[in-house]
């Protein structure tokens, strides 16, 4: 939502302290998320994916996809993006990038405390870039479980710099979350998966109810012919494919995830993720098959593999 302040005020925004929030989830949330990013979407008994939604010994044993951590971004905002000194049109907001560090595999249920801070603000002229960092701790233990850094690309909100230099603030290392260079060699593995026409309607049940992904009239207002897929849903498909093809199905192998959303995806389109293993880093690129269009690229750092591919 927009603020009541009439001016875009970067100093006010940077000085603002966001409140700590609590986020509680359980095995049902974990399974609904996994279905939202296509687990068992092509085959209900897929042995690589059933573990994310069902376990024969009880739901407490289901495995959690590392990208479940990304839900903590929106889940940690008590008031959406209603921030002092910050004006934007919510229909023009797009998800630009996501960076996730996972320090310990996520439990199948937990109560977390989130500490949110502003990590970046840039004036790109035609757009403003706003980055929020969320550090999530297990309640009671003070153990840091994961960190998310989310980049919002706010079309039409740029041009707020008062000096001749475009405003640029970043409080994290420049080697994190950058667009990657895609190798010109054959990929180590390729994963293809069709999203369902109803994919965004299912994914939104994990907490992102932005009408951009469900309401045809709102999508048109935002400049799209129909509702688009959540960026984090595309990311979930891609990382699930990397776990299957490179990590031998072990979601706990994933340490760091970085992704930049390059173009929009429409629910029902087929995603092809190409991946290149370089030491303990997987460079990846996801394309929409029907339009041969790159929609996401990034890297995944893994903890190590028991044997070679
Ligand atoms: C903070 C918490 C809020 C979270 C909200 C989450 C809500 C979720 C919404 C969604 O899921 S929306 C769906 C997913 N996202 C998308 O579909 C976006 C796909 N990408 C695009 O459509 C385009 O890439 C773009 C973002 C519109 C940008 O394209 P454009 O052609 O306008 O940019 P450029 O002219 O190439 O670059 C301008 C400037 O911006 C930088 N930049 C470009 N793309 C991105 C990006 N994805 N993320 C961050 N920054 C980006 C680019 O480097 C240029 O900067 P300079 O080089 O000039 O400094």
Folded structure, characterized:
15% of the residues lie in helices and 32% in strands. Strands 1, 2, 3, 4, 5, 6, 7, 8, 9, 10 and 11 form an eleven-stranded antiparallel sheet that branches. Strand 3 and strand 4 form a beta hairpin. Mean pLDDT is 93; it is low at 1-6. With 309 residues, it is α+β, with helices and mostly antiparallel strands. Ligand LOHRUJSQ is lined by residues 73, 81, 94-97, 124, 129-130, 132, 150-153, 210, 228, 230-231, 260-264. One of its GO terms (molecular function) is lyase activity.
Keywords:
309 residues; binds ligand LOHRUJSQ; globular; 11-stranded antiparallel beta sheet; alpha+beta
Topology:
Blueprint: H1 10-15, E1 21-25, H2 27-36, H3 71-75, E2 93-102, E3 110-123, E4 127-138, E5 143-155, E6 168-170, E7 189-194, H4 199-203, H5 216-221, H6 231-245, E8 254-261, E9 270-278, E10 281-288, E11 293-302
Antiparallel strand pairs: 1-3, 2-5, 2-8, 3-4, 3-6, 4-5, 7-9, 8-11, 9-10, 10-11
The structure holds ligand LOHRUJSQ.
Domain Peroxisomal multifunctional enzyme type 2-like N-terminal: 23-156
Domain MaoC-like: 183-295
Protein name: MaoC-like domain-containing protein
């Amino acid at each position: 939502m927009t603020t009541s302040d009439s001016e875009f005020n970067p100093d006010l925004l940077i000085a603002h302290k966001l409140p700590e929030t609590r986020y509680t989830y359980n095995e049902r949330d974990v399974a609904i998320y996994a279905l939202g990013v296509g687990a068992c979407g092509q085959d209900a008994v897929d042995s690589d994916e059933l573990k994310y939604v069902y376990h024969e010994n009880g739901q407490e044993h289901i495995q959690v996809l590392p990208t479940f951590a990304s839900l903590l971004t929106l889940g940690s905002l008590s008031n959406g993006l209603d921030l002092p000194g910050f004006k934007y049109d919510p229909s023009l907001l797009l998800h630009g990038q996501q960076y996730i560090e996972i320090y310990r595999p996520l439990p199948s249920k937990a109560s977390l405390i989130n500490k949110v801070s502003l990590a970046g603000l840039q004036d790109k002229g035609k757009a403003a870039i706003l980055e929020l960092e969320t550090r999530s701790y297990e309640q009671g233990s003070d153990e840091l479980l994961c960190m998310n850094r989310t980049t919002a690309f706010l079309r039409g909100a740029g041009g707020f710099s008062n000096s001749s230099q475009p405003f640029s603030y970043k409080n994290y290392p420049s080697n994190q979350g950058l667009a990657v260079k895609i190798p010109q060699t054959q990929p180590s593995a390729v994963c293809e998966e069709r999203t369902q026409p109803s994919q965004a309607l299912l994914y939104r049940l994990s907490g992102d109810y932005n009408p951009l992904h469900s309401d045809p009239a709102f999508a048109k207002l935002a400049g799209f012919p129909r509702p688009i897929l959540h960026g984090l849903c595309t990311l979930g498909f891609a990382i699930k494919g990397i776990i299957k093809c490179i990590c031998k199905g072990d979601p706990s192998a994933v340490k760091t995830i970085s992704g930049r959303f390059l173009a929009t995806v429409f629910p029902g389109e087929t995603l092809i993720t190409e991946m290149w293993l370089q030491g303990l880093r997987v460079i990846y690129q996801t394309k929409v098959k029907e339009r041969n269009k790159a929609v996401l690229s990034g890297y995944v750092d893994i903890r190590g593999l028991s044997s070679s591919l």
